Automatic annotation (TrEMBL):
<comment type="subunit">
    <text>Homooligomer. Interacts with EGFR.</text>
</comment>
<feature type="domain" description="PX">
    <location>
        <begin position="40"/>
        <end position="154"/>
    </location>
</feature>
<dbReference type="GO" id="GO:0035091">
    <property type="term" value="F:phosphatidylinositol binding"/>
</dbReference>
<protein>
    <recommendedName>
        <fullName>Sorting nexin-16</fullName>
    </recommendedName>
</protein>
<keyword id="KW-0458">Lysosome</keyword>
<keyword id="KW-0446">Lipid-binding</keyword>
<keyword id="KW-0813">Transport</keyword>
<dbReference type="InterPro" id="IPR051837">
    <property type="entry name" value="SortingNexin/PXDomain-PKLike"/>
</dbReference>
<dbReference type="InterPro" id="IPR001683">
    <property type="entry name" value="PX_dom"/>
</dbReference>
<dbReference type="GO" id="GO:0005764">
    <property type="term" value="C:lysosome"/>
</dbReference>
<dbReference type="GO" id="GO:0031902">
    <property type="term" value="C:late endosome membrane"/>
</dbReference>
<keyword id="KW-0472">Membrane</keyword>
<dbReference type="InterPro" id="IPR036871">
    <property type="entry name" value="PX_dom_sf"/>
</dbReference>
<feature type="compositionally biased region" description="Low complexity">
    <location>
        <begin position="14"/>
        <end position="25"/>
    </location>
</feature>
<dbReference type="GO" id="GO:0006622">
    <property type="term" value="P:protein targeting to lysosome"/>
</dbReference>
<dbReference type="GO" id="GO:0031901">
    <property type="term" value="C:early endosome membrane"/>
</dbReference>
<dbReference type="InterPro" id="IPR037911">
    <property type="entry name" value="SNX16_PX"/>
</dbReference>
Length: 247
């Protein structure tokens, strides 16, 4: 992970990038300053830093500080280059007469070179300044969604805080999944024990039925040879076996 904040001097240079500045970082810009279209932005949206993420697939995240000019309330949004490109694609059919400034993709070379990324920040900042300075574009749903204008997140000061929040949520999900796996294992053990008890019950029932059958046969033989009532103990045991065998 590599983090690169933007210095104060760089921020001043970013703020001086105008919407009709021509080619920025090999991007294509055109003048959108039509009469009555350009307005004083309701929000300040400087790109104040970027970070190269390396945990999984390597990519760069740009940190944008969104501040409401009138109230001073601010928050941060984190966007990849593909997010900017997706926003530009959404805006084109809505405003077909305008071409917005967006630095192109780099097909060759190191996309994570600091100098290249600094140039890309300049190009992206020009793109942001163009859309936020346009009366209609700045109020369009794609732009409001991109900057979270209708549902601002809590102001997290650093990407580390955002990552910490994500890691905390991931940890909670992991613990819940772990507990679920443990519960599943316990249920499987209980099912196994229940199957074992059912098997034992079946064996005992068969044994009792066999004992009852043998006892009945023996009693019949004794009654034939020497007719008399069986003892109370034998009668009680036989009755108990019959009861158990019927369960």
């Amino acid at each position: 992970m590599s983090r690169y904040p933007i210095s104060k001097q760089d921020r001043e240079s970013l703020s001086s990038v105008s919407s009709d500045s021509g080619d920025v970082s090999n991007g294509h810009c055109c003048d959108i300053e039509e009469e009555g279209i350009v307005v004083i932005p309701e929000y300040n949206t400087p790109i104040i830093g970027y970070e190269v993420m390396e945990e999984r697939a390597r990519f760069t995240v740009f940190k944008i500080r969104v501040e409401h000019v009138e109230t001073g309330r601010y928050w941060f949004v984190f966007r990849r280059y593909t997010d900017f490109a997706r926003l530009s694609k959404k805006l084109k059919p809505r405003f077909p007469g305008l071409q917005l400034c967006l630095p192109p993709k780099r097909w060759f070379g190191n996309n994570f070179d600091p100098m290249f990324l600094e140039d890309r920040v300049l190009g992206l900042q020009a793109f942001v300044k163009n859309i936020m300075g346009h009366r209609d574009i700045s109020k369009s749903p794609p732009v409001r969604e991109f900057f979270c204008l209708d549902d601002p997140p809590e102001p997290l000061d650093t990407i580390e805080e955002s990552r910490a929040l994500c890691e905390n949520l991931e940890e909670q999900v992991y613990r819940l999944n772990q507990q679920l796996r443990e519960r599943d294992a316990e249920i499987e053990v209980l099912r196994s024990e229940l199957d074992s008890l059912r098997l034992q019950h079946g064996v005992l029932v068969k044994a009792l039925k066999l004992e009852c059958s043998l006892a009945s046969w023996a009693n019949a033989q004794l009654s034939r040879d020497r007719p008399q009532l069986p003892s109370s103990h034998a009668f009680g045991l036989h009755a108990l076996n019959l009861t158990l065998s019927s369960m």
